[in-house]
Specification:
This protein is 34% helix and 19% strand. The protein is α/β, with parallel strands linked by helices. The strands form two sheets. Strands 8-7-6-11-9-12-10 form a seven-stranded parallel β-sheet, sandwiched between helices. The protein has a five-stranded mixed β-sheet with strand order 1-4-3-5-2. α3 packs parallel to α4 and α7 packs parallel to α12. The protein is elongated and about 65 Å long. The mean pLDDT is 89.
Length: 289
């Protein structure tokens, strides 16, 4: 039995997380230990639940109520995920939605979920189970869609963990998690403060046994399919901002700079596309056979 609450007043504070609070305000939401985020669609919500995130509430459009709850219940049953219990489910009708300018529920149910505390940079790396890990470092990547796409590629192509600098878009932003199809809840990840990353990030990686490969063009850049990269015991692939790319300091301190071979006249790819190619070549891909 679901805990349904039919909304009669759009000014209700119960709707604040969905229609009035910004991503930053959700991050620092009052009454929570680590903040909130919004998960969008039954598939994304179920993956978040399966990963251990706890829902504060759900928001569903009345005409799609049965569809969305059936989808969510099915996903949870298929994956043996604990149900919603007495989590409040707020229901609004299509007339109310039209009064919320620029807002829709076309992608299905939304859930406000509690964030969890992230481990430190060092603790995160030490906890990775793979003896020969491949990780990605995302430096100042500010587009949430790119963050989501990179996580989706990381999940599909054998990246064991992702480190996100604090000046990047947040992987739990609504657009990030939606574009990732919920894989932000599957791939282990954590943050590193941007200032700490710039001053000692690569040194910390080196002390933990990692070699680093910065995706950047230099006179000594090697191809991503260079055989010496495959032999590295612990490898961190570093991807940079959509515009200016990686910081010069990051490139200079890295063990390698790597490139994707391209046709004449083209010097770069979108960072999300570049990540997919790099992860395909360098990740620990799981083989079906």
């Amino acid at each position: 039995m679901h805990n349904l609450n039919f909304i009669t007043d759009l000014a209700s504070p119960d709707l604040d997380p969905y229609v009035r609070l910004t991503e930053a305000q959700l991050f620092h939401a009052k009454g929570t230990q680590d903040g909130l985020f919004i998960a969008e669609s039954p598939k994304v919500i179920e993956r978040a639940l399966r990963a251990g995130y706890q829902p504060a509430s759900l928001l569903v459009e009345e005409k799609f109520l049965d569809r969305d709850l059936d989808d969510l219940d099915h996903e949870m049953a298929m994956n043996q995920t604990e149900g919603l219990g007495r989590t409040p489910i707020y229901v609004i009708n299509d007339q109310q939605i039209r009064q919320l300018a620029g807002y829709n529920l076309l992608r299905g149910a939304l859930a406000a979920m509690y964030r969890v505390q992230r481990p430190s940079f060092a603790d995160f790396l030490k906890a990775l189970p793979n003896a020969h890990p491949r990780i990605a470092i995302l430096e100042h990547i500010v587009n949430p869609a790119n963050i989501g796409a990179i996580f989706r590629s990381a999940a599909a192509l054998g990246i064991d963990g992702v480190i996100v600098t604090s000046d990047s878009a947040d992987p739990l932003y609504r657009r990030s998690s939606r574009v990732s199809m919920g894989t932000v809840f599957q791939v282990p990840w954590t943050y590193i403060d941007a200032k700490i990353w710039q001053t000692e990030g690569i040194s910390l990686l080196h002390r933990l046994g990692y070699q680093t490969a910065a995706m950047a063009l230099r006179h000594n850049t090697i191809r991503i399919d260079d055989p010496q990269l495959v032999k590295i015991d612990k490898l961190a692939v570093i991807l940079g901002s959509e515009g200016p790319g990686l910081e010069e300091r990051t490139i200079m301190q890295s063990d390698f700079s790597i490139k994707i071979p391209m046709a004449t006249g083209v010097d770069s790819l979108n960072v999300a596309a570049a990540s997919a190619l790099a992860f395909w070549e360098l990740g620990n891909r799981k083989q079906d056979n």
